[in-house]
């Protein structure tokens, strides 16, 4: 059973760059798919089309049975089911960790403040930051900020998590702590699409690896097959 289906997706930017040239891929419930490929190959664009941060020119995207290209679809509703974590953590600088995590559930979902805070504290524990609830982003390391960003995405109880180079902006010593949180999510059965250069993570955690080049999927394979020495 597929939770993500992308069919013949074409994305051309207004400047004429063809970032995606008829890309088709799908992801099953609970699957972890890692997307690799050279810079500029369309990885980030593909990820952004999956929750319609980038509208597409041609093709179709179906998330959990709902077509994003159907004009009747409420895109914002579907987007709530898809959590996204960016290279730059994008936390709200004037809010502490707890407030960053509770803001979307309380405003978008109308969850009560006490309920949202209870969930946020559980999520902070999950990402190993139970003692940093009142810290502001500027008081946290990059690795800690990224873990708060993951907790913030999880607070909306998404069915899918998209990660766009989540460790690329981190100092090397902080990469491991973020990957550990992602591994835990994968083990718990979260459906994940991860753009990353961390080949160890791909080998260890991915069910499938997609290799992109120049706006096309060149190969899709299990990590064992893809990384096999020729
Ligand atoms: P990757 O994530 O693999 O590095 P991207 O998806 O970011 O690749 O980019 C794919 C191509 O699309 C690149 O040529 C990039 O310069 C171009 N591109 C990305 N975003 C935009 C944009 N907003 N406007 C124009 N071109 C873009
Ligand atoms: P990433 O691969 O993480 O998206 P990029 O440096 O490719 O990083 O893109 C950063 C931002 O700049 C994105 O919002 C992307 O859409 C935009 N962008 C990338 N390439 C271009 C381009 N050639 N023209 C305009 N915007 C671009």
Automatic annotation (TrEMBL):
SMART domains per UniProt: AAA
Domain named ABC transporter: residues: 4-230
InterPro entries: AAA+_ATPase (IPR003593), ABC_ATPase_HisP-typ (IPR030679), ABC_transporter-like_ATP-bd (IPR003439), ABC_transporter-like_CS (IPR017871), MetN_ABC_transporter-like (IPR050086), P-loop_NTPase (IPR027417)
Family named by the database record: Belongs to the ABC transporter superfamily.
Keyword RNA-binding: no
GO molecular function, one term: ABC-type amino acid transporter activity
PANTHER family recorded: AMINO ACID IMPORT ATP-BINDING PROTEIN, PHOSPHONATES IMPORT ATP-BINDING PROTEIN PHNC
Enzyme Commission number, as recorded: 3.6.3.28
Keywords, ordered alphabetically: ATP-binding, Hydrolase, Nucleotide-binding, Transport
Protein name: Phosphonate-transporting ATPase
Annotated TM spans: none
């Amino acid at each position: 059973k597929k939770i993500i289906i992308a069919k013949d997706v074409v994305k051309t930017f207004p400047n004429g760059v063809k970032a995606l040239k008829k890309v088709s891929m799908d992801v099953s419930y609970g699957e972890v798919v890692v997307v690799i490929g050279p810079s500029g190959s369309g990885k980030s664009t593909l990820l952004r089309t999956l929750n319609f941060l980038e509208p597409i020119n041609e093709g179709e995207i179906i998330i959990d049975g709902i077509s994003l290209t159907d004009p009747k679809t409420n895109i914002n509703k579907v987007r709530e089911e898809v959590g996204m974590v960016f290279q730059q953590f994008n936390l709200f600088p004037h809010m502490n960790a707890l407030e960053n995590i509770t803001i979307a559930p309380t405003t978008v979902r109308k969850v009560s403040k006490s309920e949202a805070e209870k969930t946020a504290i559980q999520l902070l524990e999950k990402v190993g930051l139970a003692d940093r609830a009142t810290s502001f982003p500027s008081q946290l390391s990059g690795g800690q900020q990224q873990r708060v960003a993951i907790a913030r995405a999880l607070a909306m109880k998404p069915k899918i998590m998209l990660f766009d180079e989540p460790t690329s902006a981190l100092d090397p010593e902080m990469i491991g702590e973020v990957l550990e949180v992602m591994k835990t999510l994968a083990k718990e059965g979260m459906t994940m699409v991860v753009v990353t250069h961390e080949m160890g993570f791909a080998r260890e955690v991915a069910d499938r690896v997609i290799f992109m080049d120049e706006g096309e999927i060149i190969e899709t394979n299990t990590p064992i097959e893809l990384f096999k020495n020729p």
